[in-house]
């Protein structure tokens, strides 16, 4: 028995969205990607996500 506090009686454990892959597409201009890359790099390095930081830094135009 699962600890659902009784909600399993009226709630389905699986739904259509459990079987769908959802993704988002975001479009930036080159200038916008450069500006966002600066912010993303700082955030990624703060989280020790070095590869993500390097990917963001690759988009920064000098």
What structural keywords apply?
single chain, 62 residues, mainly alpha, 2 helices, 42% helix
Task: Write up this protein.
There is one protein chain. The chain has 62 residues and is an all-alpha fold. The chain has a domain at 26-62. 42% of the residues lie in helices and 0% in strands. It has 2 helices and no strands. The protein has helices spanning 30-46, 50-58. Helix 1 packs antiparallel against helix 2. It is elongated, with a radius of gyration of 20 Å. The mean pLDDT is 88.
Q: Please report the number of helical segments.
A: 2
Low-confidence stretches: none
Number of strands: 0
Helix share of residues?
Answer: 40-55%
Q: Radius of gyration, Cα only, in angstroms?
A: 20 Å
- The chain-level mean pLDDT equals 88
Task: Outline the biggest β-sheet.
Answer: none
Distance between the termini: 59 Å
Query: How big a fraction of the residues is strand?
Result: under 5%
The structural class is mainly alpha
Order of helices and strands: HH
Summarize the structure.
With about 60 residues, the protein is an all-alpha fold. About 40% of the residues lie in helices and about 0% in strands.
